[in-house]
Amino acid sequence: MEYILEVENVNKKLDTFSLENIDFKLEPGFIMGLIGRNGSGKTTLINTILGLYQKTTGNVRICGHDLCRDESRAKGELGFVLDENPFLEDFSSLDNARIYSSYYKNFNMDMFTRYCSRFDVDPKRKLKKLSKGTIIKFQLAFALSHDAKLFVMDEPASGLDPVFRRELMEIMYDAILSGDKSILFSTHLTEEIDMVADYVTILHEGKQVITTSKEELFESYRVVKGSEEKIQLLQPSVIGKKVTPYYVEALVKNEESILNKGCQIEIPTIADFMFYFSTDKREEFTYV
């Protein structure tokens, strides 16, 4: 099978931070959400996949093209929407499109202007005079206009109003309906994962905690609540726990051993996974 994105044992060392052995693949026609707390490495990983950072070791391939050995063809398959604007702020959206469209053989200027109209982006206004949300919309219009196969988005809903945020989720879903495109996006808004993601990768302190389908994630774990003594009976199924003055809550593996222990059992949320998989020592004490 040819994957849209292959990230193989990627390491990236910065001055005070490192990505360590990141490894996953993304098939055509799917959306992967990248989640983790601030500073977990989401933006560093995305910048490495885009070639904005030179990886220390490992391999990145986009539609089979190696990002180092075949950079032009690999990047030609990429569309991106970044939290930090990579375009020229002293130029208008239209001028930016004219400048950067030359890097993409399939860029369609008519399509770009239609998307600008749809997203209420004034193509003649300089980017530095646009709001952050409107710059995100411009980037989205550009990314959708050159037949990219992989869309990479870093906090794409940042700065967007709730109405367009929902429309963005619909646009992301529509973009992959053809079956030959995929999306990797980072977010701290867990409802976005619930709405559109097929796969989830959780990062913590530069390390890949888990990569799995959203369906398998929900099937494999449960949140349980009970006394400290009852939660202790669930070891070694406990991934992490939170202690309050009234009860103990824990994320546990969904196994038969957790049944009939007198605990309340619930299906986790994406927020639960991000909390328990990205907490130091997987344990948090909370006093109310």
Strand-helix topology:
Blueprint: E1 5-13, E2 18-26, E3 31-35, H1 42-49, E4 57-62, E5 65-66, H2 71-76, E6 78-81, H3 93-100, H4 109-118, H5 132-143, E7 150-154, H6 162-175, E8 182-186, H7 190-196, E9 199-204, E10 207-213, H8 214-220, E11 221-226, H9 228-232, E12 238-243, E13 248-253, E14 264-266, H10 270-277, E15 283-285
Parallel strand pairs: 3-8, 3-9, 6-7, 7-8, 12-15
Antiparallel strand pairs: 1-2, 1-4, 4-5, 9-10, 11-13, 11-14, 12-13
Structure description:
It comes from Anaerosporobacter mobilis DSM 15930. The protein has 288 residues and is α/β, with parallel strands linked by helices. It has 2 domains: 5-216, 3-Layer(aba) Sandwich (Rossmann fold); 220-285, no CATH class. It is 30% helix and 28% strand. It has helices spanning 42-49, 71-76, 93-100, 109-118, 132-143, 162-175, 190-196, 214-220, 228-232, 270-277, and strands at 5-13, 18-26, 31-35, 57-62, 65-66, 78-81, 150-154, 182-186, 199-204, 207-213, 221-226, 238-243, 248-253, 264-266, 283-285. The strands form 3 sheets. A 6-stranded mixed β-sheet has the order 6-7-8-3-9-10, with helices on both faces. The protein has a 5-stranded mixed β-sheet with strand order 14-11-13-12-15. The longest helix has 14 residues, at 162-175. The radius of gyration is 21 Å and the shape is elongated. The relative contact order is 0.15.
